[in-house]
Amino acid sequence: MSTTIATTPLAAKQDVQVYEGVLELMGELFFATLEPGNRYVTKPLILNTALYYALGYARGPYVNRATDRRSKRQQPTYVEDTAALADQIYVSVARPLTRLRFTTENANARGDDYVQRNQPEKQMNSPTGKIGTRKQIQPGAKFRFFVLAFGGAVPDLPSYVRVGKKRTKALIEWNLLQVRQHSGSFMMNHPVLVDDLARMPIGDIRFSRMIPFDVIEQGRFEGPYCSFTCTDGEEVRLPADLQFLRRWRA
Question: Considering only CA atoms, which of 43, 42, 3, 50 is closest in space to residue 23?
Fold first, then answer.
């Protein structure tokens, strides 16, 4: 998949196009968005960290590298993998359009520390199974998200993607929306990552804690914003200066 990138500097961009994406799951969707003990819970949001890779706007290694040899902590490369288009393309978080149905199943909860090298004198007892539970979203659920293209950028809009820990197949229906630009006080009513914002809301905040980044689902802001009407008539307002992981790029 390819994306045509405009070279207009961020400060000089005036035009923006908004594409509405309605994503329909064709399989069960699983993300470890909460990890209480050995229970892995998929919350009813799809973070844009996943959507950038699913849409082909970010490319990176399949396995994250550890931060150092003595640590199991993984270090994703979101900023590096999106550096080429961070000023031209913004993908929002996706929120559900339909009532979601969940299933819970047993799953392997053992980490890599159980792997044993070929040293019989140091062998531990086997088997090493460790069971947890996994809560996931059933097929047929629909989510809505937006792709904002600045400065003449032309994003690729694939009809099918794979998303989630299980690489679930999903169908996307795209619509180009009419955009209106404003400045002043407004209520943001579609979720975005806290780290994508140039400024924090001044009130009326609804907040969700998630992994790997927290989300503001709504909030009142001051400043430039864009508004547009979705295909079902919903009016959406978003800050006009959103950038994927803006706070990490400073």
Answer: 50
